[in-house]
Amino acid sequence: MDKLVINGGSELKGSIRVSGAKNAALPILSAVILADGKFKISEAPELVDIATMLKLLAELGISSKRDGKTVTLNSKFDPEKIEAPYDLVKTMRASVLTLGPLLARKGKARVSLPGGCAIGERPVDLHLKALEAMGAEIKVEHGYVEAVCKRLKGAEITFDIVTVTGTENIMMAATLADGETVLRNAAQEPEVVDLARFLKKMGADIQGEGTKEIRIKGMKSLTNADYIVMPDRIEAGTFLCCVAAAGGDVEVTNVPVQEMRATLDKLIEAGLEINKLNDTTLRVKRTKPLSATDITTLPYPGFPTDMQAQFMAVMVCADGVSVATETIFENRFMHVAELKRMGADIMLKDKSCIIKGVKSLMGAPVMASDLRASASLVIAALMAEGETEVSRLYHLDRGYEKFVDKLSGIGANLKRVKE
Ligand code: EPZ
Known about the structure:
Blueprint (H helix, E strand, L loop, with lengths): L1 E6 L4 E6 L4 H10 L5 E6 L5 H12 L2 E6 L2 E6 L7 E2 L1 H4 L9 H8 L1 E5 L12 H9 L3 E5 L2 E5 L7 E3 L5 H11 L5 E5 L5 H12 L3 E3 L5 E5 L9 E2 L4 H14 L1 E6 L7 H10 L2 E6 L2 E6 L8 E2 L11 H8 L5 E5 L8 H8 L3 E5 L2 E5 L8 E3 L3 H13 L3 E5 L2 H4 L5 H6 L4 E6 L1
Parallel strand pairs: 2-15, 3-14, 6-7, 10-11, 18-19, 22-23
Antiparallel strand pairs: 1-23, 1-24, 3-5, 4-5, 7-9, 8-9, 11-13, 12-13, 15-17, 16-17, 19-21, 20-21
The site of ligand EPZ has 23 residues, from helix 1, helix 5, helix 6 and helix 12.
């Protein structure tokens, strides 16, 4: 396994480009199951999770080839290829996104249950309940979801909890169902909207994406289409947190500014200087110490849970006391113990953390536990005195394309070494 060796203290300068959004590319690639023919998906980030999804699609009869940021796929209908195997699903829970499209297109699906991960149990009960409401017969046996349905029927579904992949799974399934499906308490995340845009290019009839109520009129069939995946608002937010922590003056390009209001507002409230040079470029400067700022994670358009760990790392050396409250996942504070080993003063209290700003952090060997926690440890290391080693880098490789190259490109002192 690899680790990162980071020496803190260098200010960041230069320009850094945001890649395509992992959490938009994953459902978009899965939607390819819904039609035959050639698809060209551009700005598909080169990440472990994307490679896993392409392996999974190959098991389902869809071949693919990557050429830089573009993935070309060839989807051929094969009624026998309906299984998403455990050895792939266990490495990426987003594999559950193949369930809806398989059921809609082939009338059956056998998808391994994802199992939990570091940040929580992460059940898929709401996905299954919604598919049953559309007429699917669902059995859960030997760790697999076995679903059968000749043709799904449109239904009115209200999600008990806002679920991003739940909304995406059912929206995809509904595109080929008989009749209209109405999703209420739907997720409003920009990645859901990006998926809807792609499905509409494939000929789907969808209204209301980006609101809490989405209406989908089922079609007999969909067609292949090309698409450019939206930029990654979490990667962009992570870069802004790097500048907030290390200081400096950086231009960030290919930013989905409109979709990042909650993150930008909190960083500005903390004292980061953020100027919009155009619709997709920000100039970010940190010229003074930051002030303590509270966050509470919420479904979009609230502050994203995927930014909680990174923002907390920035608050560790801010002036004053901040409170970070996590309302989406039950165990998304795995980074706290590691930050405390670097000298952070953080107290856990139920769903919140109280962060008392300290003068400085000390470099230390730390361990990543999940994707965003690993980013928060890198952010802390950039402002720590001395050397930090971040191990278990496979977490980082799942969600950040060329992270070391990009950060080194703006002056961060970090390198990847074999453990
Ligand atoms: C998506 O996960 C993202 N992943 C996550 O990003 C993100 O943290 C999360 O949405 C919240 O924004 C992808 O899009 C691939 P949920 P998802 O269903 O869809 C509970 C990252 O860092 N729930 O919105 O799995 C669930 O346990 C990842 O890139 C049920 O109880 O999250 C959680 O507490 C991490 N039953 C809450 O709802 C269900 O059937 C929200 O989960 C589904 C969800």
